[in-house]
Amino acid sequence: MATSPRATQQKFEPWTDPHAKPYVRIEKVTKKFGDFIAVDDVSLSIYKKEIFCLLGASGCGKTTLLRMLAGFERSTSGRIFIDGVDMTSIPPYERPVNMMFQSYAIFPHMTVEQNVAFGLKQERLSKDEIGSRVNDMLNLVKLGQFAKRKPHQLSGGQRQRVALARSLVKKPKLLLLDEPLAALDKKLREHTQFELINIQETLGVTFVVVTHDQEEAMTLSTRIGLMNHGEIVQVGTPSEIYEYPNSRFVSEFIGSVNMFEGRLVEDEPSYVRIGCDDLEAPIYVNHGVSSAPGATVWAAIRPEKITISRDKPDVADNWASAVVRDIAYMGDMSIYLLRLDSGKVVRVTQPNIYRHAEDRITWEERVYLQWYPESPVVVTK
Amino acid sequence: MKPLLKRLGLQGRTAVTAVPYLWLLLFFLIPFVIVLKISFSTSQIAMPPYEPLLQWTGDKVMQIKLNLGNFAFLVEDDLYWKAYLNSIWVASVSTFFCLLLGYPIAYAIARSNPSARNILMLLIVLPFWTSFLLRVYAWIGILKNNGLLNNFLLWIGAIEQPIQMLQTDFAVYVGIVYSYLPFMILPLYANLVKMDLTLLEAAADLGCKPWQGFLKVTLPLSLPGIRAGCLLVFIPAVGEFVIPSLLGDPGMLMIGKVLWTEFFNNRDWPVASAVAIVLLLFLVVPMMYFQRAQDAEAGGVHR
Lengths: 381, 303
What we know:
In chain A, the strands form four sheets. A six-stranded mixed beta sheet of chain A has the order 6-7-8-3-9-10, with helices on both faces. In chain A, about 25% of the residues lie in helices and about 30% in strands. Chain A is an alpha+beta fold. Chain A is built from nine helices and 20 strands. The two termini of chain A are about 20 Å apart. Chain B is an all-alpha fold. Chain B has a domain at about 80-265: MetI-like fold. Chain B has a two-stranded antiparallel ribbon. In chain B, strand 1 (about 55) and strand 2 (about 60-65) form a beta hairpin. Chain B is globular, with a radius of gyration of 25 Å. The interface between A and B is medium-sized, with 27 and 20 residues.
């Protein structure tokens, strides 16, 4: 198991503990709309106080799964347990779950305060308790002075926080967030991501977040469930998903990657050598691969894990020669598009460590690529 | 065209906005002023059957004669205010029943399959393709003693004697509700169909059962539609003349009928005009009040 940055800080990894009881259990859930299978036999365990991100392209079934957790959709088969209680046939208004809608769905005919108090009024709490809880929640999301405003008098970011406050004030066991940051501009989005994590840590509520934005999923989540065509293709911490993708789909979905198709030429328990038609030298990977010998495999190498130099490396494996086709200067780093002799284009990113480098590699130059045996990930599907 | 407009001192934009104003001036304001003028004159047997307001007496004197008697007459004779009150009562009850019937219909159409919606709305406005008068006459055939409804009730054995339905208040209510129901449904539908349904999901998510969600979200958000529909039914129903005179008791007091009688039977144009002016005041005042209330509620939404 890889160690994520989060884990080294506070060691929050209930999924690695065999005795930990999952808080939310999704068991073999399938949802069909007519002939279309939106969610296909999904099983998931989500632990208390997690921020679990369902990540995927639009139409992959992540929102349908979220709506089944909320109770807006009934699963065609399978069951959902929250805190040990079977939720399958419980209507949304009786579930200990609240949702923050993508459109926010703030009631336009009510003030901010009334919106936040709405759910508490349904619970028939005393006026004083409603008042103080609404007040605390508005202060937490920094909307105290906007309590009497109507939604149309608020900015997009403020509305987002009203929606968050409204869904959190009922102290749900599980908070569902449908693309919570999609409607915000980039600066505000980054700021809000961290605010969301802080609020979650303050209140200790379990979050399930649906997003199509991998960056959002990486920063927010304890674990990511990557979905494709209604199925969960991989579950893992952000770093596991990034560094140890289990398929070509995962490695290509998260970040950018150079994919080299090849065959296993040497297959040992502790290392493999892969012959690749696009490269002069074989790829040497320092871990074993469970695959039939001679089968097609793919070596995925992230752009930042390749180095470029003008000198031909004096090694047998893990190098290639190429011509610089394009350079994009991004400030903190540069992206190089390099054409191998086979015609394949490889993407390499290099941090711009020195402020001015006069002899920086430039267009149409012949360069050599090199990577460590730890760098490639071998996937078999 | 352009130089002509320029010579008239009109910009293209002004010319376009002038059209509705011109229309209102020609077909609303000028007739209104004429009616107002007649309401202050005195009836006489002549052509036209009222005295002019302005008279040139010959001695370099222009005489303006304002006869307030017509309005005083409306107050003195209890026939008029009873007719006003009865009209408002009948219109209110009819509006209430239109809302009671129209809201579920509009709601059902707005929540139906999008492909079915247009057909259903077409069916709602379909009766307009037949003359209003013919449709009211058809109700005579249904409601009269040996009409469709009585015959049906006799046939199934629910009654032994035909019920007198025609020429009762019941018939008038049926006629008004039937005729004006589309005017209730159309604005309600337009309002309900554009409602964001995720608001109802949000309400359910926050603990509302479906009926609570309706009361707390759908109903308050449809208030502008309810208001518009009620005004569209109430205002014409107050002045309704055809339905009470065809279906109602001949003795039923309705201001529209009184107006007709004054104008055509008594040929008392000034009193008829006074009746019309007062009727207008009865309608304009609540209308302006509702408009204000609506604007105040909408607040900053209108940008």
